[in-house]
C-alpha cells in the first residue's frame, strides 16, 4: 500500500543549526506532497506543500522540493530557532481523499 | 475565517460510558476526516467522508466506534462503550475534495478511566 517514510527522531539541534528531515514516499499515482507541523498541545498545521515534480514548497524559512526521481520530499531550514521545536509530519495525498498518508512524525528539539 | 472546530477539547470518562466527539468542518469543504493520535501508534486515519458519504472506514478499530455526517457542517464520532485503550487525542480535519490539503482542528483529548 501507499506509505511515507521519515527519518527517526528525535532530532536535537542547537539554535541556528541547519536542519534536514528526510522523507520518502511511494509513487502510486501523482500525489501532492505536504509537510505538517504540530506544536505541543495543538493540531497539525500545514507548513508547506508541492503538487508536482520539481515544485518547491516554502514557508517560514522551511523548504522542500518534490523529487520524483528519488521519490523524496526532504524538509530543510538553514537556521533553526527554539520556536521551531515541534513534531514534523510528511504526507502524501491525492484528490478525493484517496490515499492520504502521513509519515510517523519526527520530533525536533532546538536548544538555545 | 473559522477553522475546523472540535468539541469537547477534553473529556474524562469512565470505562463503559458513551463518548461523543463533535466536529464542524470549514465552510465549503466537502471532505471530512477523523484521526486518532497516540504515542504508541502515532496518527491513524479512522474514517473519511466525501460530500457527507463515508468513503473509507477501514481504520475504525471495532464496532464500538461509529461516525456520522448528517450534513455538510457537522460530524460526530461516537464510542460506545468506551475502554481505557481508547484514550487518545482525536482530530477532525476537512478539505476540498479537489485539492487534498487537510486542515485540522485542535483535537479532543479523551481519557477513559
The protein's oligomeric status is: heterodimer
For the sheet with most strands of chain A, the description reads: 6 strands, mixed
**Strand fraction of chain A:** over 45%
**Mean pLDDT across all amino acids of chain A:** 91
Calculate Rg of chain B over CA atoms.
13 Å
Number of helices of chain B: 0
**Rg of chain A (CA only):** 13 Å
Outline the low-pLDDT stretches of chain B: none
Instruction: Tell me the greatest interface.
Output: A-B, 21 and 24 residues
Question: Could you explain how this protein is built, in words?
Answer:
The complex is a heterodimer of chains A (112) and B (113). Chain A is mainly β. Chain A is 0% helix and 48% strand. Chain A has strands at residues 4-6, 11-14, 19-21, 23-25, 32-38, 44-50, 56-59, 62-65, 75-77, 86-93, 101-102, 106-111. In chain A, strands 2, 5, 6, 10, 11 and 12 form a six-stranded mixed β-sheet that branches. In chain A, strands 3-9-8-7 form a four-stranded antiparallel β-sheet, with no helix packed on it. In chain A, strands 1-4 form a two-stranded antiparallel sheet. The radius of gyration of chain A is 13 Å and the shape is globular. The N and C termini of chain A lie far apart (41 Å). Chain B is an all-beta fold and 113 residues long. Helix content of chain B is 0%, strand content 55%. In chain B, the strands form two sheets. In chain B, strands 2, 4, 5, 6, 9, 10 and 11 form a seven-stranded mixed β-sheet that branches. In chain B, strands 1-3-8-7 form a four-stranded antiparallel β-sheet, with no helix packed on it. Chain B is globular. The model of chain B has no long low-confidence stretch (mean pLDDT 93). Classes of the chains: A mainly beta (112), B mainly beta (113).
Topology, element by element:
The complex is a heterodimer of chains A (112) and B (113).
Chain A: E1 4-6, E2 11-14, E3 19-21, E4 23-25, E5 32-38, E6 44-50, E7 56-59, E8 62-65, E9 75-77, E10 86-93, E11 101-102, E12 106-111
Parallel strand pairs in A: 2-12
Antiparallel strand pairs in A: 1-4, 3-9, 5-6, 5-10, 7-8, 8-9, 10-11, 10-12
Chain B: E1 5-7, E2 10-13, E3 19-24, E4 31-38, E5 42-50, E6 53-56, E7 65-71, E8 74-79, E9 88-95, E10 103-104, E11 108-112
Parallel strand pairs in B: 2-11
Antiparallel strand pairs in B: 1-3, 3-8, 4-5, 4-9, 5-6, 7-8, 9-10, 9-11
Amino acid at each position: 500500500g501507499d506509505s511515507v517514510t521519515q527519518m527517526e527522531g528525535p532530532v536535537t539541534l542547537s539554535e541556528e543549526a541547519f536542519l534536514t528531515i528526510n522523507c520518502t514516499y511511494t509513487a502510486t499515482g501523482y500525489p501532492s506532497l505536504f509537510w505538517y507541523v504540530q506544536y505541543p498541545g495543538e493540531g497539525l498545521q500545514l507548513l508547506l506543500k508541492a503538487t508536482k515534480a520539481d515544485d518547491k514548497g516554502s514557508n517560514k524559512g522551511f523548504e522542500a522540493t518534490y523529487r520524483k526521481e528519488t521519490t523524496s520530499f526532504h524538509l530543510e531550514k538553514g537556521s533553526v530557532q527554539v520556536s521551531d521545536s515541534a513534531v514534523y509530519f510528511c504526507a502524501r495525498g491525492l484528490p478525493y481523499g484517496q490515499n492520504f498518508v502521513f509519515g510517523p512524525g519526527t520530533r525536533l528539539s532546538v536548544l538555545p | 475565517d473559522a477553522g475546523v472546530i472540535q468539541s469537547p477539547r477534553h473529556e474524562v470518562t469512565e470505562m463503559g460510558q458513551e463518548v461523543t466527539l463533535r466536529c464542524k468542518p470549514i465552510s465549503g469543504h466537502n471532505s471530512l476526516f477523523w484521526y486518532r493520535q497516540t504515542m504508541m501508534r502515532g496518527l491513524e486515519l479512522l474514517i473519511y467522508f466525501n460530500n457527507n458519504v463515508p468513503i473509507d472506514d477501514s481504520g475504525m478499530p471495532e464496532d464500538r466506534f461509529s461516525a456520522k455526517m448528517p450534513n455538510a457542517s457537522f460530524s460526530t464520532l461516537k464510542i460506545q462503550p468506551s475502554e481505557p485503550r481508547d484514550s487518545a487525542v482525536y482530530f477532525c480535519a476537512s478539505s476540498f475534495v479537489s485539492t487534498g490539503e487537510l486542515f485540522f482542528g485542535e483535537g479532543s483529548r479523551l481519557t477513559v478511566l
